[in-house]
Design goal:
By secondary structure, this protein is α/β, with parallel strands linked by helices. Helices cover 34% and strands 23% of the residues. The strands form 2 sheets. It has a 6-stranded parallel sheet. Helix 3 crosses helix 7. The longest helix has 19 residues. It is globular. It starts with a strand and ends in a 10-residue tail after the last strand. This is Kinase. Keywords: Kinase, Transferase.
Length: 206
Amino acid sequence: MKIEPEEWFSQMDWQNFSGRTILGIDGFSRTGKTKLSKELEARLREQGLAVYVFHIDDFIVEKKRRYGTGLEEWQEYYFLQWEVEHLAEFFFGQLKTAEQLDLWVYDGDQDSRSMQTVRLPGEGVILVEGVFLQRKEWRHFFDCLVYLECPAEQRFLRESENMQSDHALLKRRYWKAEAYYEEMLKPAEQADWVLDSSTSKIGDAI
């Protein structure tokens, strides 16, 4: 059943979380993942819980590895944008127990990556937000996973003017990958919670 984000906030019993909880916020572009993550982080901190937030787009690879590879553009986006197996082993697989992580973090301005060390709280919530989180290589690492849903036409209106002006790119690179994900992984069926962000401001462009 799909519910409003505010209803989800009120239904979750955050104080029952113990140890280190891995929580994922999955959804396509402009469904409001980042804004929901920020609001959730603030609410959890108000309740005295330690929180660390990761954005999966911080771990993409350099452009030369995901553009002009000979694959269709949607395949580059879905299969090459992230080092899926590497993240499964050295990121997702370590979130539950590691005291610190050494991660390759992407710098969009420089189109380069650098190794950064992150220290994790001993107890609290590790929040990961991003697209395609329910891949088979990653899904089982989460204790709880939320999926945001919003119609494609509404998400399009939330895009920046630059993205809206290149409708063909959205169709051939991003929307085809999203359709593949929905068909193959059925994320709304896999998720623990499905949130309706169509009437919420959490998905609005900044």
